[in-house]
Amino acid sequence: MNFAPIYTDIAKEATMRTAAPEREDRCPPRTRETRLDEGAGYGVRGTYLRQRSPHSRTSHSRICAMRDHDELFAALAASDFRRRFRLRGAELDYLRRKGRDAVLRHAREMIDARLAPAEIANDGKQTPMRGHPVFLAQHATATCCRGCLAKWHGIPKGQALTEAEREHVVRAIERWIVEQESAAPPEETAGEDQIGMDL
Questions:
Q1: What's the whole-model pTM score?
Q2: pLDDT, tens only, 83-133
Q3: What are the pLDDT digits (tens) for 44-82?
Q4: Looking at the 3D structure of the chain, how many domains does it have?
Q5: Is 27 within the bounds of a domain?
Q6: How distant, in Å, are the alpha carbons of 5, 45, 64 from that of 27?
Q7: Is residue 44 in a domain?
Q8: Domain ranges, residue 147
Q9: Is residue 22 assigned to a domain?
């Protein structure tokens, strides 16, 4: 029996698979090192965001997993660095004076300007350590830069944040602020000498 035609077909298919260019619109693979880094963990549950590919006119979609907030906050609580942040002093007073709605509007504006662009020249340094409740919340929730978003939230770098991803970030900031506000001392005992981070 002549197997030459079968081998030819197999070789042709292998060549096509090898020669096919990798799609630029796919999420980067989650490597073992990435999953282990800073509490990312195995088996991350998340909200799956389906987007139409910007590089294709076909119906191909790119799927990215945004980490579930409950799992995220459990991991943040296990981080020595993240749990050092507290809403106190001037930042707490600011929240009480301006109100939560105003602070969350600021959060959305900051995310749009400092975190949402695909390329950020000073990524990793764009969020001050103090000076506004949102700054503290961003460091506490690992929404301070695109590197932290990738490691902790499963939102890859190199592409502008979608509306759903921006909402995900703001909701994480809101959750931290609500928890901190509830745990804060009464207004009359909250002094200006307190700082927003346990050193």
A1: 0.66
A2: 999 999 999 999 999 999 999 999 999 999 999 999 999 999 999 999 999
A3: 344 444 444 444 443 333 445 799 999 999 999 999 999
A4: 1
A5: no
A6: 38, 16, 6
A7: no
A8: 68-184
A9: no
Domain-embedded: residue 10:
no
Please, how many CA atoms are within 13 Å of residue 122, restricted to the half-sphere of its CB? Answer: 7
Return the pLDDT at 185: 87
pLDDT over 50 at 165, yes or no: yes
Q: List pLDDT tens digits, range 134-159.
A: 999 999 999 999 999 999 999 999 99
Instruction: Give the bridge partners for 142, in sequence order.
Output: none
3-state secondary structure the chain: CCCHHHHHHHHHHHHHHHHCCCCCCCCCCCCHHHHHHHHCCCCCCEEEEEEECCCCCCCCEEEEEEECHHHHHHHHHCCCCHHHECCCHHHHHHHHHHCHHHHHHHHHHHHHHHHCCCCCCCCCCCCCCCCCHHHHHHHHCCCCCHHHHHHHHCCCCCCCCCHHHHHHHHHHHHHHHHHHHHHCCCHHHCCCCCCCECC
